[in-house]
Structures are given as C-alpha cells and as structure tokens.
C-alpha cells in the first residue's frame, strides 16, 4: 500500500514525520527490543553484524526509523542503526554509516528471520557544530 500526501508547507511535513517517529518509538520500539531480547541472532557480515528480526514488521520499523533519521540529519550511523534495533552500540559506531539508503530493502533469511540488506558503511564526515 502506498500513500501520496501533499503538504502546503515543509513545517506540516516535519510535524507529521515527528508524530510518526514518536508513534514508532513508543509502540514499535518496545516490541522490537523485547523480540531481540528473546531471540538475538546475528550473522557475520563483511563490515560487522547483520541483525535478524523475528518479524518483517520489526525490521521495517527499524528501517523506517533509519530513513526518518537520514531525512532529518542527512546521515545515519551504525550506532543509530544499533540503537534503533535495541542493541548496544559504542562511540566508534558513530563514525561509520550511510548517507544514502537507496536500494536498501528488508529481506527474509530462514530460519533466522528478516534483516535489512545494508551496504558496507562508509566513514562519515564529522558533525560540526555552529559556534
């Protein structure tokens, strides 16, 4: 199912995205964390670990959070991905990530479950703060 919505102002879109993000955070994130606590399954990948999710819905929810974060910050780090997935992350995970999620999709891999087919993360430019 695909929805097409037009907004008169960018602020309206941001408001909707904030509400969606809060809803995902409150309703889905807890379910994701619980599922991951019950069944933590990892697959070694060239760049690290592929996180398997018990349900397609959980994988899509994390991927949605990643896309929202990318829209807002123009980047999503490995640390962000782990945190959205309910997994511990370290400071080094903030240095690598993605600036484009084009072509990324959720795939099934039995018997482990579902995973987000992410490319190898790249070194991200440091975030500079305005003085």
Computed structural class: alpha+beta
| Molecular shape | globular
Enumerate the spans where pLDDT stays under 50 for 5 or more consecutive residues. 1-5, 36-46
Total beta strand runs: 7
Strand content: 15-25%
- How much is the average pLDDT? 77
Order of helices and strands: HEEHEHEEEE
Rg over CA atoms: 15 Å
Instruction: Output the number of helix runs.
Output: 3
Question: In this structure, how is the largest beta sheet organized?
Answer: 3 strands, antiparallel
State the helical fraction.
40-55%
Blueprint (SSEs and pairs):
Blueprint lengths: L9 H29 L3 E4 L2 E4 L4 H18 L2 E2 H7 L11 E3 L7 E4 L3 E4 L5 E2 L8
Structure, described:
With 131 residues, the chain is of the alpha+beta class. The chain has one domain. The protein has helices spanning 10-38, 56-73, 78-84; strands at residues 42-45, 48-51, 76-77, 96-98, 106-109, 113-116, 122-123. The strands form 3 sheets. It has a 3-stranded antiparallel sheet. Strand 1 (42-45) and strand 2 form a beta hairpin. Helix 1 packs across helix 2 (56-73). The model is unreliable at 1-5 and 36-46 (pLDDT under 50).
Keywords:
single chain, 131 residues, alpha+beta
Could you write a compact summary of the structure shown?
The protein has 131 residues and is an alpha+beta fold.
